[in-house]
Amino acid sequence: MKWNRAVQHVADLAGACADMDTRPAAIFPLRVVGLWVAGELLGPPRDVETALVALEVDVPEVPWLTEPKGAAHWGQAVRLPQLPLTVRWRSAHAPVWNHVLDRPVPVWTRAGGVDEGALAALRDGEGERVRPAERGDVAQRVAEELGISHRALSASTDEYRERRYKPGKLEPVADALWRAAEGYLDLVSAQAERSWSDQV
To answer: What pLDDT band is residue 146 in, cutting at 50, 70 and 90?
Structure first.
């Protein structure tokens, strides 16, 4: 994917976030309050396979690599599955950044709207200029997320066990278990390998 096209997808999603924020909560109860960019789009212009973004939502916890309730409904409304974006769902009640989302840049927030300056910096390949200057304690952040992820994996395992032989579709429960397990394993690996240490 060409650089300008990737940035345009992010800009379009920022506009969609602003539009969705005006929709009734009765129809879209999951409230997205921020869109952040991380990864390759914060570097110099080049072709990219995908754009890494984080959608910040107003729920107490979103375990790493999982989707909060209502994410699929919200995503379908903005055609998220059709976009060449890698989306990570994050809670607004905890830091957005972690070992993968390294010093991300907000391009839309409920409070501030679309940040045209940040989008312009991305288009020009100057994402580094608008990133936070410092990163937090990644080891501590990974440890915090690991605790959340462990609780989610335990709950998802219990739900799967409960539903395994009952009538009805098992796929949603199995998918939730898979996402919880994937996030937990990623955090365990990050903690063991300190995969972020070369980025400090």
So the answer is: very high
Q: What is the pTM of this model?
A: 0.93
Residues 6+ apart with CB under 8 A from 63: 145, 148, 149, 151, 152, 153, 180, 183, 184
Distance between terminal CA atoms of the chain?
29
Which two structure tokens, joined as six digits, stand for 3?
């650089």
Q: Are 53 and 85 spatial neighbours (Cβ–Cβ below 8 Å)?
A: yes
Distance CA 43, CA 40 (A): 5
Residue 103's region, left for phi above 0, alpha for psi from -120 to 50, else beta, is left
Let me know if 132 is exposed, middle or buried by CB neighbors in 10 A (0-12, 13-18, 19+). exposed
Reduced to 3 states (helix: H, G, I; strand: E, B; else coil), residue 51 is strand
| Span 47-99, pLDDT tens digits | 999 999 999 999 999 999 999 999 999 999 999 999 999 999 999 999 999 99
Q: Which of 156, 151, 141 is nearest to 187 (CA)?
A: 141
Helices and strands (H and E) in the chain: how many: 6, 5
Q: pLDDT value at position 200?
A: 43
The structure tokens 């989008």 sit at 119
